[in-house]
């Protein structure tokens, strides 16, 4: 009987060792899959154009290779929407540009509150297909903006239109929605009440 117990004990130990090695292998494979998922996700986003909020750095080589198509003009219309207590607008409502030509537009923002605010601008394009041809080199939308109390600021957008833009697109609307990130109003008001 003791021999049977010993054989059974050895058999169970072998089963446990196999199970442990399988579990370790599964854990390593899961880690590898998670690690490989990041570049795969980035590639999918680039191909489908889903993640348009993340700015893509455009190298100087791409700029120098851009040729200006002087045979055509595209009208760029600028729009501004706000979600918060400030004034936000472009300095001009539209301009005509040649595809490939480096251009700059300036947006003005004024924080009308007596406290500091963090804000973010989100761009949108019309027609939607134009978004992949609208190349921004510099934009205030790339990062959050911190506006001091009653601060006025001019924020540039440097861009060009890719000459590969379909010929039937004659007008592009660039619209920004500028909204507050986090609510500092309650913090500022509670701080003022504490001082009285």
UniProtKB/TrEMBL annotation:
Q: Which GO terms describe its molecular function?
A: copper ion binding
**Cross-referenced Pfam families, in alphabetical order?**
CtaG_Cox11
**TM segments?**
20-41
Its biological purpose is as follows: Exerts its effect at some terminal stage of cytochrome c oxidase synthesis, probably by being involved in the insertion of the copper B into subunit I.
Spell out the InterPro entries in the cross-references. Answer: CtaG/Cox11_dom_sf, Cyt_c_oxidase_assmbl_CtaG
- Protein name per Swiss-Prot or TrEMBL: Cytochrome c oxidase assembly protein CtaG
- Native source organism of the sequence: Undibacterium oligocarboniphilum
Compartments annotated for it: namely: Cell inner membrane
């Amino acid at each position: 009987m003791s021999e049977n117990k010993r054989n059974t004990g050895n058999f169970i130990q072998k089963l446990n060792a196999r199970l442990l090695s399988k579990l370790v292998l599964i854990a390593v494979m899961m880690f590898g899959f998670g690690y490989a998922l990041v570049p795969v996700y980035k590639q999918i986003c680039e191909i489908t154009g889903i993640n348009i909020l993340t700015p893509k750095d455009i190298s100087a080589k791409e700029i120098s290779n851009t040729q200006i198509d002087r045979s055509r003009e595209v009208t760029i219309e600028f729009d501004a929407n706000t979600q918060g207590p400030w004034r936000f607008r472009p300095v001009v409502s539209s301009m005509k540009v040649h595809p490939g030509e480096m251009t700059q537009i300036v947006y003005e923002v004024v924080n009308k509150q007596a406290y500091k605010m963090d804000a973010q601008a989100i761009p949108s394009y019309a027609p939607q297909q134009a978004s992949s041809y609208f190349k921004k080199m510099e934009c205030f939308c790339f990062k959050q903006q911190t506006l001091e109390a009653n601060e006025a600021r001019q924020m540039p957008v440097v861009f060009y239109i890719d000459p590969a833009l379909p010929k039937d697109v004659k007008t592009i609307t660039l619209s920004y929605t500028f909204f507050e990130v986090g609510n500092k109003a309650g913090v500022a008001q509670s701080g003022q009440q504490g001082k009285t």
